[in-house]
Amino acid sequence: MIRLYSLIAAGLIAALLGGLGYMVMTGSQQAGLGQCRETSIAGGAGSIGGPFELVDHTGRTVTDADFADRPVLLYFGYTFCPDVCPLDTARNAQAVDLLAERGYDVTPVFVSVDHQRDTQDLLAEFVRFMHPEMIGLTGTEEQIRDAARAYRVYFAAQESDDEFFLIDHSTFSYFMLPGHGFVDVIRRDQSPEQVADTLGCFIDNA
Protein backbone atom coordinates (compact mmCIF):
# COMPACT_ATOMS: atom_id res chain seq x y z
CA MET A 1 0.00 0.00 0.00
CA ILE A 2 1.29 3.45 -0.87
CA ARG A 3 2.40 5.18 2.33
CA LEU A 4 1.33 8.68 3.29
CA TYR A 5 4.03 11.31 3.59
CA SER A 6 4.47 13.09 6.90
CA LEU A 7 2.85 16.50 7.30
CA ILE A 8 6.25 18.15 7.37
CA ALA A 9 7.34 16.48 4.16
CA ALA A 10 4.09 17.40 2.46
CA GLY A 11 4.46 21.00 3.53
CA LEU A 12 8.00 21.20 2.21
CA ILE A 13 7.01 19.62 -1.09
CA ALA A 14 4.18 22.10 -1.52
CA ALA A 15 6.49 24.98 -0.76
CA LEU A 16 9.15 23.78 -3.18
CA LEU A 17 6.65 23.32 -5.98
CA GLY A 18 5.06 26.68 -5.43
CA GLY A 19 1.65 25.42 -4.30
CA LEU A 20 -0.79 22.60 -4.89
CA GLY A 21 -1.36 23.25 -8.54
CA TYR A 22 2.30 22.87 -9.50
CA MET A 23 1.51 24.91 -12.56
CA VAL A 24 3.78 25.35 -15.57
CA MET A 25 3.87 28.81 -17.16
CA THR A 26 4.93 28.79 -20.77
CA GLY A 27 8.20 30.63 -21.44
CA SER A 28 8.89 32.49 -24.66
CA GLN A 29 11.54 29.92 -25.56
CA GLN A 30 8.84 27.22 -25.43
CA ALA A 31 6.23 28.89 -27.58
CA GLY A 32 3.95 26.37 -29.23
CA LEU A 33 4.26 23.78 -26.47
CA GLY A 34 1.50 25.23 -24.31
CA GLN A 35 -1.17 23.21 -26.10
CA CYS A 36 0.40 20.03 -24.70
CA ARG A 37 0.16 21.19 -21.06
CA GLU A 38 -2.76 20.89 -18.69
CA THR A 39 -1.01 22.54 -15.74
CA SER A 40 1.40 25.42 -15.08
CA ILE A 41 4.55 25.99 -12.89
CA ALA A 42 5.19 28.90 -10.55
CA GLY A 43 8.28 30.68 -11.78
CA GLY A 44 8.02 29.28 -15.31
CA ALA A 45 9.37 26.12 -16.89
CA GLY A 46 12.81 27.70 -17.01
CA SER A 47 12.98 27.57 -13.20
CA ILE A 48 13.30 23.77 -13.28
CA GLY A 49 16.34 21.84 -14.44
CA GLY A 50 19.99 22.77 -14.62
CA PRO A 51 23.53 21.41 -14.65
CA PHE A 52 24.39 18.26 -12.71
CA GLU A 53 27.18 15.70 -12.52
CA LEU A 54 26.34 12.12 -11.52
CA VAL A 55 27.52 8.55 -12.13
CA ASP A 56 25.50 6.11 -14.25
CA HIS A 57 24.86 2.44 -13.50
CA THR A 58 27.89 1.43 -15.55
CA GLY A 59 30.23 3.61 -13.49
CA ARG A 60 30.57 6.38 -16.08
CA THR A 61 30.51 10.01 -14.94
CA VAL A 62 27.80 11.93 -16.80
CA THR A 63 26.41 15.45 -16.82
CA ASP A 64 23.18 17.04 -17.98
CA ALA A 65 24.91 17.73 -21.31
CA ASP A 66 25.01 13.98 -22.03
CA PHE A 67 21.20 13.99 -22.21
CA ALA A 68 20.68 17.24 -24.08
CA ASP A 69 20.44 15.54 -27.49
CA ARG A 70 17.39 13.37 -26.79
CA PRO A 71 13.95 13.42 -25.15
CA VAL A 72 14.31 12.24 -21.54
CA LEU A 73 11.78 11.17 -18.93
CA LEU A 74 13.48 11.65 -15.55
CA TYR A 75 12.40 10.29 -12.16
CA PHE A 76 13.94 10.60 -8.67
CA GLY A 77 13.55 7.61 -6.33
CA TYR A 78 15.45 4.73 -4.75
CA THR A 79 15.70 0.98 -5.29
CA PHE A 80 14.71 0.03 -1.71
CA CYS A 81 11.41 1.92 -2.09
CA PRO A 82 8.64 -0.58 -1.26
CA ASP A 83 5.80 0.87 -3.28
CA VAL A 84 5.81 4.26 -5.00
CA CYS A 85 9.09 4.10 -6.94
CA PRO A 86 8.56 0.69 -8.58
CA LEU A 87 5.04 1.66 -9.66
CA ASP A 88 6.05 5.05 -11.04
CA THR A 89 9.16 3.71 -12.76
CA ALA A 90 7.24 0.81 -14.32
CA ARG A 91 4.60 3.29 -15.54
CA ASN A 92 7.30 5.39 -17.16
CA ALA A 93 8.80 2.30 -18.80
CA GLN A 94 5.40 1.34 -20.22
CA ALA A 95 4.91 4.85 -21.57
CA VAL A 96 8.33 4.73 -23.26
CA ASP A 97 7.38 1.43 -24.92
CA LEU A 98 4.08 2.87 -26.13
CA LEU A 99 5.97 5.83 -27.59
CA ALA A 100 8.42 3.49 -29.32
CA GLU A 101 5.49 1.73 -30.97
CA ARG A 102 4.43 5.13 -32.31
CA GLY A 103 7.91 5.92 -33.62
CA TYR A 104 9.16 8.13 -30.77
CA ASP A 105 12.47 7.55 -28.99
CA VAL A 106 12.41 8.64 -25.32
CA THR A 107 15.10 7.69 -22.80
CA PRO A 108 13.87 6.78 -19.28
CA VAL A 109 16.24 7.90 -16.51
CA PHE A 110 16.13 6.96 -12.82
CA VAL A 111 18.06 9.13 -10.34
CA SER A 112 18.66 7.51 -6.96
CA VAL A 113 18.25 9.67 -3.86
CA ASP A 114 19.80 6.91 -1.72
CA HIS A 115 23.57 7.30 -1.99
CA GLN A 116 24.15 5.02 1.01
CA ARG A 117 22.48 1.83 -0.26
CA ASP A 118 22.12 2.18 -4.02
CA THR A 119 25.42 0.77 -5.18
CA GLN A 120 26.28 0.60 -8.85
CA ASP A 121 25.38 -3.11 -8.98
CA LEU A 122 22.01 -2.63 -7.30
CA LEU A 123 21.16 0.32 -9.49
CA ALA A 124 22.15 -1.58 -12.63
CA GLU A 125 19.97 -4.54 -11.64
CA PHE A 126 17.01 -2.26 -10.92
CA VAL A 127 17.06 -0.28 -14.16
CA ARG A 128 17.70 -3.33 -16.34
CA PHE A 129 14.70 -5.03 -14.75
CA MET A 130 12.52 -1.98 -15.36
CA HIS A 131 13.53 -1.25 -18.97
CA PRO A 132 16.47 -2.28 -21.17
CA GLU A 133 17.10 1.33 -22.19
CA MET A 134 16.71 2.87 -18.75
CA ILE A 135 19.71 4.74 -17.33
CA GLY A 136 20.34 4.75 -13.60
CA LEU A 137 22.16 7.67 -11.98
CA THR A 138 23.65 8.09 -8.52
CA GLY A 139 26.53 9.94 -6.89
CA THR A 140 27.70 11.44 -3.64
CA GLU A 141 25.14 12.94 -1.29
CA GLU A 142 26.20 16.42 -2.43
CA GLN A 143 25.89 15.54 -6.12
CA ILE A 144 22.45 14.05 -5.63
CA ARG A 145 21.25 17.02 -3.60
CA ASP A 146 22.53 19.42 -6.25
CA ALA A 147 20.60 17.55 -8.95
CA ALA A 148 17.47 17.36 -6.79
CA ARG A 149 17.70 21.06 -6.03
CA ALA A 150 17.92 21.87 -9.74
CA TYR A 151 14.65 20.00 -10.34
CA ARG A 152 13.03 21.19 -7.11
CA VAL A 153 12.81 17.63 -5.83
CA TYR A 154 12.23 17.01 -2.12
CA PHE A 155 13.71 13.98 -0.36
CA ALA A 156 14.59 13.13 3.24
CA ALA A 157 15.42 9.86 4.99
CA GLN A 158 13.13 8.87 7.85
CA GLU A 159 14.79 8.41 11.22
CA SER A 160 15.57 4.74 11.85
CA ASP A 161 18.00 2.58 13.80
CA ASP A 162 18.31 -0.08 11.12
CA GLU A 163 19.29 -0.36 7.49
CA PHE A 164 15.73 -0.66 6.25
CA PHE A 165 14.89 3.02 6.55
CA LEU A 166 12.50 4.69 4.14
CA ILE A 167 13.05 7.92 2.23
CA ASP A 168 10.25 10.42 1.71
CA HIS A 169 10.45 12.06 -1.70
CA SER A 170 8.40 13.93 -4.26
CA THR A 171 6.96 11.74 -7.01
CA PHE A 172 6.84 13.79 -10.20
CA SER A 173 8.55 12.72 -13.40
CA TYR A 174 10.25 15.39 -15.52
CA PHE A 175 10.21 15.56 -19.31
CA MET A 176 13.08 17.23 -21.16
CA LEU A 177 13.42 18.00 -24.86
CA PRO A 178 16.49 18.92 -26.96
CA GLY A 179 16.69 22.67 -27.42
CA HIS A 180 14.10 23.29 -24.70
CA GLY A 181 15.31 21.57 -21.56
CA PHE A 182 12.56 20.89 -19.05
CA VAL A 183 9.06 21.24 -20.55
CA ASP A 184 6.61 19.55 -18.19
CA VAL A 185 6.01 17.46 -15.08
CA ILE A 186 4.22 14.12 -15.20
CA ARG A 187 2.00 13.33 -12.22
CA ARG A 188 1.90 9.87 -10.74
CA ASP A 189 -1.86 9.57 -11.31
CA GLN A 190 -1.39 9.65 -15.10
CA SER A 191 -1.64 6.32 -16.91
CA PRO A 192 1.01 5.03 -19.35
CA GLU A 193 -1.31 5.95 -22.23
CA GLN A 194 -1.82 9.49 -20.91
CA VAL A 195 1.92 9.95 -20.41
CA ALA A 196 2.62 8.70 -23.94
CA ASP A 197 0.01 11.05 -25.39
CA THR A 198 1.43 14.04 -23.53
CA LEU A 199 5.05 13.32 -24.43
CA GLY A 200 4.14 12.63 -28.06
CA CYS A 201 2.39 16.00 -28.24
CA PHE A 202 5.49 17.79 -26.95
CA ILE A 203 7.76 15.99 -29.40
CA ASP A 204 5.47 16.78 -32.34
CA ASN A 205 5.29 20.46 -31.45
CA ALA A 206 8.89 21.08 -30.38
TrEMBL record:
<dbReference type="Pfam" id="PF02630">
    <property type="entry name" value="SCO1-SenC"/>
</dbReference>
<protein>
    <submittedName>
        <fullName>SCO family protein</fullName>
    </submittedName>
</protein>
<dbReference type="InterPro" id="IPR003782">
    <property type="entry name" value="SCO1/SenC"/>
</dbReference>
<comment type="similarity">
    <text>Belongs to the SCO1/2 family.</text>
</comment>
<dbReference type="InterPro" id="IPR036249">
    <property type="entry name" value="Thioredoxin-like_sf"/>
</dbReference>
